[in-house]
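User: Please predict the structure of the protein below. I'd like the answer in structure-token form so I can feed it into my own downstream comparison script.

Assistant: Understood. Taking the following sequence of 298 residues as input:
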Amino acid sequence: MADAVPTATVPRPMRQANSALGRRRKRIDRVVSVFAYVSTAIGLFFLAWLLVTLFGRGFAAFNLSVFTLSTAPPGSNGGLLNAMVGTLIQTALGTAIGAPIGLLVGTYLAEYARNTWLGNVVRFVSDILLSAPSILIGLFVYQLIVINTGGFSGWAGVAALAIIVIPVVVRTTEDMLRLIPDTLREAAIGLGSPKWVMIRFVCYRAAMQGIITGVLLAIARIAGETAPLLFTSLGNLNWSTNLNEAMPSLPITIYQYAASPYDDWIALAWVGALIITIAVLALNILARYVIRTEPSKK
């Protein structure tokens, strides 16, 4: 190996140029670091402000009647039971419909259509649907179901939420299956297993944590959706579990109560927002825990 060139042999102008370049890079690095820290501090400040305001106003009006009474006229000491039940029903059914479809589409993209034109088209459409505003999905379901059935319904809300779930699960499933080494697939095929058996007993088991995480993230996303439900299930201030008619939901109730001139309704809107925030935060924490848990620890 050739010996390093002594510093003394480097021309003085070149040493000065290198020194100036090094100082310039350090200055740029400091400036970028300052901007990064300031941006982070601003973001954390507004996030903390939002959470402090939400928790402060939400807990101030929090009581047991929120979970035991349905929505009622102003001054009647109502609760949010019917809205929470409606949200749980629509979220559960939307997930039950959208998650299996997303799982199958993600499996098709990862295992059957990796380098095909059809797979690329499906992936492109899924990515567009993933980034589409939820209000557009609500309008689509409104044109497709609400107008043709003659009225708002819980089923229309379920359909809108299921469409939102599908691309999230598709992307997560495909990414998780692509992370599985091909040697595992080859080993299963080499033992004589059909491809569907290999996918079910090898790929799904290896990618199960990531797939579950995608489903949990999809649930966290649709749990607080308001715009698509305004065009589909509309909302209902009365107790109703009938999916064939307008159905209550917590996000729509928050939207209606927050815009009202009544203090008790505004207080319930803060409580509802707090409940949704805690639920979404719990789902995100659960998703991160699931994806970080090693299979050996289960």
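That's the full token string. The two ends are 52 Å apart (CA to CA).
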